[in-house]
Amino acid sequence: MLAAERKNLILEKLQEEKKVVVSELSALFDVSEETIRRDLDKLDKEGLAIKGYGGAVLNESNSVDMPFSIRKKRNMDGKRKIAAMIADIVADGDHVFIDPSTTGVAIASALRSKKRLTVITNSIEVLTELADVSGWDIISTGGTMRENYLALVGARATDSVLSFNADKAIISCKGLDMKKGLTDGNELFSQVKSAMLDSSKMHILAVDSSKFDQIAFSQICEVSRIDTVVTDVKPSEEWVEFFKESGIELIYAE
Question: What angle do CA 106, 108, 109 make, to 5 degrees?
Fold first, then answer.
């Protein structure tokens, strides 16, 4: 097994169990405990885990993002529910921005039955998902690819987004807070998502229940900038009332 593959499997185990033990990983992967310690050292240096005596725990700070390949496996059922509800909002012929989130990939898949869509995205995974769809216009923003994210960011990506006028922007976030608004773990991602909102008529937030009452590093926008929130589970009554008072449509799975 390659070291990179073992690293991803350790990350998956951390996601599921929140902690790992050196001796158990050594037996699981049939490698020495010293090899596992080196793996954990790398994860610690990358900010993905916090190494301790005999093992490591998951770094659950909102300032840290797991690689795309790991994040896309989180709450897959919830993402599919969100995607199905958003597919009911998007109409044939729409021009749509889709951000480079793991939920965005599920949304792209759910939209495949639509006709004559124009999709503008900075997500490599969304471009790949829609590569064989006929009758659509699929537009890449261009930009610089961010390592481990499969996303295009930077000034070129932002300027490209601002050159279009779309019907709908479908974005996600890492944190959703009533006072701090929508936040993400990286300023470059926030800039592109904010540009998508600037360049569209309708603003849709696709966010699973784990993001509520969380705050990440970089603000995307105030909550009031969003028209519709689509989530997998009914939020708290406080949030329900907040959306109602703010004039924001709330859609969630029954």
Answer: 65
- Structure token digits, residue 200: 């569209």
- Tens-digit pLDDT profile for the chain (254 aa)? 788 888 888 888 887 788 999 999 999 999 999 999 999 998 888 888 899 889 998 887 655 565 655 565 566 788 999 999 999 999 999 999 999 999 999 999 999 999 999 999 999 999 999 999 999 999 999 999 987 788 999 999 999 999 999 999 999 999 999 999 999 989 999 999 999 999 999 999 999 998 999 999 999 999 999 999 999 999 999 999 999 999 999 999 97
Q: What stretch of H or E contains 153?
A: strand 151-153
The CATH number fitting domain 70-252, selected from 3.30.930.10, 3.40.50.300, 1.25.10.10, 3.40.50.1360: 3.40.50.1360
> Does the model's pTM come out above 0.85?
no
Q: Match 């885990």 to its residue by tokens.
A: 49
Distance CA(156)–CA(164), nearest Å, equals 13
CB-based contacts of 38, cutoff 8 Å, min separation 6: none
Q: Reduce the DSSP state of residue 54 to 3 states and report it.
A: coil
Contact 207, 173 (CB under 8 A): yes
Strand order in the sheet with 181-184: 175-177, 181-184, 218-221
Q: What is residue 105's DSSP assignment? A: H
Six token digits for residue 82: 């969100």
